[in-house]
Write a structure and sequence with these properties.
Alkaline Phosphatase, subunit A; Arylsulfatase, C-terminal domain; 2 domains; ten-stranded mixed β-sheet; four-stranded antiparallel β-sheet; 11 helices; 27% helix; globular; sulfuric ester hydrolase activity; ARSB; calcium; metal-binding; glycoprotein
Length: 558
């Protein structure tokens, strides 16, 4: 009887444990996964040596905004996947959308693609330079089917910049950096508004049915997985819009967060709850359709959270858009049956550029010798717990960002102009110069009131004219003790390293806006507006005009 009771108890516990895995399916939430509620692996899924690669990129998720970092926001799916995989707790991205995405897809620092300043704006004739080989292009070379669902934000002013021209077999999502989660409309400025939902190279008007984007993208992922043969390798890049502003979420996700007084934090929590459920349903679909056992799931935020929009990076300093740790240290983990050290924490240095060589190597692809990568293959670091091959990270050098008023070559020991915004990490040391951005620590109690309350924020009043900071990030991850005055030799070493990197930089690509980008001129849709034939016509006209002028000059001379 005792044995029977124990077995019954274990059976009940098993059902309770599995309950959440099936929860999204039963309730029909953020992308349903119907059928196999317990997520069992069908026999049809035969393992191949080339793994299925699923890269999930969240947008603006704060460092603290995951359950296993102590958040009040419940993220049971992320917590479970991370606990059974490898948590990346020394993992870095870039402080904004375009830079992180460009580095993921090329394996190169911003200074090597010309995208070192800000983001690509909707009206700019700019995109990820076409001479850069992309991750999906390399995976296609070795037989992968490549699909992207979600936010692109790497430029679209000409057709060649579109995702389907950069290595993806299919694309369903938005081209811009943000937009309404239901209507998919975006206004860049008064009167400059348009629709921004695409299927491959065309506006997806048929999908304009008012479905919340997190749920809509998840449904698309399920369709792709259902129609693909799991015996053939697939690369699925899911770049969710959540939890980027505008702060919108379906009503039922507010259920657990009505006690949060701060409206932005409450909405943000609901958005994250929906995202967590969506990822649960993606995982269920991987199991249901026979991919899971030979899959690698990578989860990452693209940058730190924005406190004014509900995000929290506590106890890190700073926010999205800054080079303090709160802007660039991200939530990240790898979940896969192929990991050797499951259930572990990786504290080795990992950067978003590392995914390019890591995933190509796992896919049995080749990295051309002439591609000058900034990323490293870190699979053994993650899977087996070995030391990282990476010892430094160039966070960025932005030569056209607002210069620090008191920066100078003298402050940089004649090695570097400290007026320039830059940041670099070498081993334990991190150096910042110029204007590194909003530098407050924003503790949880800052969200206790109905509106943003900066009285709770912690600030440091720097001495006037300061343009250099040095921190031992290993010992002081919260950047509370500036050591630049105490260790001038270390400062000089890092400034020299900055100078070396800067010698390899390409010119910044940040053109002025083009009036032809207005969606009113493109059927009300944001999309490619630059026509190659127009350029040729203009070129031909100018050549003709030059010829006419030359003949006139000759006649005058005669």
């Amino acid at each position: 009887r005792m044995v029977a009771a124990v077995l019954a108890g274990l059976s009940l516990l098993s059902l309770l444990t599995c309950g959440y895995l099936a929860w999204g399916s039963r309730r029909g939430g953020a992308g349903e996964a119907s059928g196999n509620l317990l997520g069992e692996e069908p026999a049809a899924g035969a393992r191949r040596s080339q793994p299925h690669i699923i890269f999930i990129l969240a947008d603006d998720q704060g460092f603290r905004d995951v359950g296993y970092h102590g958040s009040e926001i419940r993220t049971p799916t992320l917590d479970k996947l991370a606990a059974e995989g490898v948590k990346l707790e020394n993992y870095y991205v870039q402080p904004m959308c375009t830079p992180s995405r460009s580095q993921l897809i090329t394996g190169k620092y911003q200074i090597h693609t010309g995208l070192q300043h800000s983001i690509i704006r909707p009206t700019q004739p700019n995109c990820l330079p076409l001479d850069n080989v992309t991750l999906p292009q390399k995976l296609k070379e070795v037989g992968y089917s490549t699909h992207m669902v979600g936010k692109w934000h790497l430029g679209f002013y000409r057709r060649e910049c579109m995702p389907t021209q950069r290595g993806f077999d299919s694309f369903f999502g938005s081209l811009l950096g943000s937009g309404d989660y239901y209507t998919h409309f975006k206004c860049d400025s008064p009167g400059i508004c348009g629709y921004d939902l695409y299927e491959n190279d065309n506006a997806a008007w048929d999908h304009d049915t008012g479905i919340y984007s997190t749920q809509m993208y998840t449904q698309k992922v399920q369709q792709i997985l259902a129609s693909h043969n799991p015996r053939k390798p697939i690369f699925l890049y899911i770049a969710y819009q959540a939890v980027h502003s505008p702060l919108q979420a379906p009503g039922r996700y507010f259920e657990h967060y009505r006690s949060i007084n701060n409206i932005n934090r409450r909405r943000y929590a609901a958005m994250l709850a929906c995202l967590d459920e969506a990822i649960n349903n993606v995982t269920l679909a991987l199991r249901k359709y026979g991919y899971y056992e030979n899959s690698i799931i990578i989860y990452s935020s693209d940058n730190g959270g924005q406190p004014m929009a509900g995000g929290s990076n506590w106890p890190l300093r700073g926010s999205k858009g800054t080079y303090w740790e709160g802007g660039i240290r991200a939530v990240g983990f790898v979940h896969s049956p192929l990991l050797k050290n499951k259930g572990s924490v990786c504290k080795e240095l990992v950067h978003i550029t590392d995914w390019f060589p890591t995933l190509i190597t796992l896919a049995e692809g080749q990295i051309d010798e002439d591609i000058q990568l900034d990323g490293y293959d870190v699979w053994e670091t993650i899977s087996e717990g070995r030391r990282s091959p990476r010892v430094d990270i160039l966070h960025n050098i932005d030569p056209i960002y607002t210069k620090a008023k008191n920066g100078s070559w003298a402050a940089g020991y004649g090695i570097w102009n400290t007026a320039i915004q830059s940041a670099i990490r070498v081993n334990h040391w991190k150096l910042l110069t110029g204007n590194p951005g909003y530098s407050d620590w924003v503790p949880p109690q800052a969200f206790s009131n109905a509106g943003p309350n900066r009285w709770h924020n912690e600030r440091v009043s720097w001495s006037a004219g300061k343009t250099v900071w040095l921190f031992n990030i290993t010992a002081d991850p919260y950047e509370r003790v500036d050591l630049s005055a105490r260790h001038p030799e270390v400062v000089k070493q890092l400034l020299r390293r900055l100078s070396q990197f800067n010698k390899t930089a390409v010119p910044v690509r940040y053109p002025p806006k083009d009036p032809r980008s207005n969606p009113k001129l493109n059927g009300g849709v944001w999309g490619p507006w630059f026509k190659e034939d127009e350029k040729k016509k203009k070129s031909d006209k100018s050549k003709g005009a030059n010829k006419q002028q030359k003949s006139k000059n000759k006649k005058k001379g005669n």
